[in-house]
Amino acid sequence: MVKEINLVPEIAEAEIKKGVYKKKSNLAAVISLLFFGGLIALVFALQALLFIWGEKIERDTKGAEELILSQKEKDITRRALVDKLKKAESFLSTRSPYSAGLGELMAVFKDTNVILKDASFEEDNVVNISGQAANSADLDKLLNALVGGSAANAFGGLQLVTLSGNKDKPYTFTVDFRFPKPGWKPAEGGNSKKP
Amino acid sequence: MKRFDFSNLGAYFIPVLVLITIIVLVFLALKPQVVNLKKSYLKVQEKSERLENLNKKIDILDSINGESENLKLIEAEKAVPSRKELAPWLNEVNILADKNGLLKLGINIKPGKVATDSAALETNNTEKKGTPTKTAKTVTTKEDKEAVTFAVTLGGSLENMKQFLLDLEGSKPLLSVTSIKSKLQEDGSYRFDLRISAPIKGVTQKGDIIAEPVPALTDALEAIFKKISRMISYVGISVPTVPTGVEDPFK
């Protein structure tokens, strides 16, 4: 059996190992320094690039702003025009077509002998009418006209609120309904459209 | 079995410590730089987006026909005025009432509010049918900046009122009757109390006006423009002005 003989003294071996470690650690230190140095350089380079980019944008922005300011009249005009048209649009969309409503109501009363005493068209779309009918037949005719025919398309939620009749005196009544009925739209020229 | 030589640790200790120190120092030194870098990048990006918007705006402005838009604005101004000038609205109501044979029994500016002492002076309290009289009141209340409300009292038949409303709905400046109260009078005519509102819209400017995109004139808005263009204007009719403090400014 061959026996190994260590000819290098143990102390010398430790020295050699230390030298190898030193070299390795030096190498690692140099690499890390280079790496972090590069990293710092990259950050500064990026900042410089951003600064240059920002400066270019600033210059271009100034030029663009001057161009816009030279056409500010167009800008202001368009803005004012759109604002006004939007206002008109919202105003017209919420406007109740009272002329058509009154027209429908007049048509109903015209067909009967009932007298319209009071009528109020309120902001909450509730209409309240009160009138006088010579007899129950006329009143019946009026109510039928309100719930049927073309008026029924414009008026909804009809309610007979009060009704009183005395001997030798005409009937007096109060009726509530909603105008305009959802979905109903007056046609051009005043005639109503069915929902 | 080979045993680990702990004496090697001594050799590694110093370089490792130095390395860790460098990493920590570099990290501490770099962190604010990276934060700054991020901030700068976001700022530049924001500026870049603004520039993009400006360039888009320039293209849009170049495509706008200034003259045509000006004419449209003049037309829109007739329908929705910028300022609260009561004269055109009152004039419109006045003309339409005359046109449809309605008697003007009263006018109340800002109805339902408390009038000031000087403005509450009623010029003529005797409202007789057939002799039109008008009462004007002004008020000191917080005003609605985008609408004006006033009330008028008219007298006449239902047919006259229907025609009046029809004309009002097709005229400019825009007016909207918000409520109607009618009452049958002894002579067979009706007394109508109308509450009327009118829109106003001035130029509003907020924020970064230069970079704010140009609002689009959509088809819906073009349709509204056509609609108001067809309406009859009563703005051109001159209204004689009277000095303040007179007993009856309507006379």
Layout of strands and helices, then pairs:
The complex is a heterodimer of chains A (195) and B (251).
Chain A: H1 10-70, H2 72-94, H3 98-110, E1 115-121, E2 126-133, H4 136-147, H5 151-154, E3 156-164, E4 171-178, E5 185-186, E6 192-193
Chain B: H1 7-63, H2 66-79, H3 86-99, E1 103-109, E2 147-156, H4 158-169, E3 171-172, E4 176-184, E5 190-199, H5 219-230, E6 232-233
Parallel strand pairs in B: 3-6
Antiparallel strand pairs in B: 1-2, 2-5, 4-5
Structure description:
The complex is a heterodimer of chains A (195) and B (251). Chain A has two domains: 8-95; 98-193, Gyrase A, domain 2 (2-Layer Sandwich), CATH 3.30.1360.100. Chain A has five helices and six strands; from the N terminus they run αααββααββββ. Chain A has helices at 10-70, 72-94, 98-110, 136-147, 151-154, and strands at 115-121, 126-133, 156-164, 171-178, 185-186, 192-193. In chain A, the strands form two sheets. In chain A, strands 1-2-4-3 form a four-stranded antiparallel β-sheet. In chain A, strand 5 (185-186) and strand 6 (192-193) form a beta hairpin. With 251 residues, chain B is an alpha+beta fold. Chain B has two domains: 9-63; 81-202 and 217-233, Ribosomal protein S6/Translation elongation factor EF1B (Alpha-Beta Plaits). Chain B has a four-stranded antiparallel β-sheet with strand order 1-2-5-4. Chain B has a two-stranded parallel sheet with strand order 3-6. The longest helix of chain B has 57 residues, at 7-63. Residues 114-143 of chain B have low confidence and may be disordered. Strand 1 (115-121) of chain A pairs antiparallel with strand 4 (176-184) of chain B, so a sheet runs across the interface.
